[in-house]
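Hi P.,

Sorry for the delay on this. The queue was packed all week, but I finally got your sequence through. Input first:
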Amino acid sequence: MQSQAILATRPQPRDRVSDALIRALEAASDCAQACTACADACLAEADAAGLANCIRFNLDCASLCATAGAVAMRRTGGGELVTLRLLQICQHACRLCAAECQRHADRVEHCRLCAATCAACERACREAADTVTPALQ
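Then the structure:
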């Protein structure tokens, strides 16, 4: 849990970072990696053209998960509303990507694994979003 160790060293904010947010940070990192790898593997498939939507969802999800994780790590000076919105967007992107990957999961193993990773990230982001209380910004 590198995220938790690093966040614990921060002088600001002094509030405790929720375990749910830590899980979402780690899930977002895992998901970004899985989606990047899945998109790359889709490109190597014989039917890469038939996986174009999957590749697009993977790349979008990877970018959004990486961004959500990076922004959520920035705890100094507020920004809770932006963190909340990014967690919600990440959750939505993961749901769409998981559904698209699931369409290919019976014949493409990397899509099956990616769908599971996206589903886990979706759950983690939903749980973390429930813990973020944005100040009026």
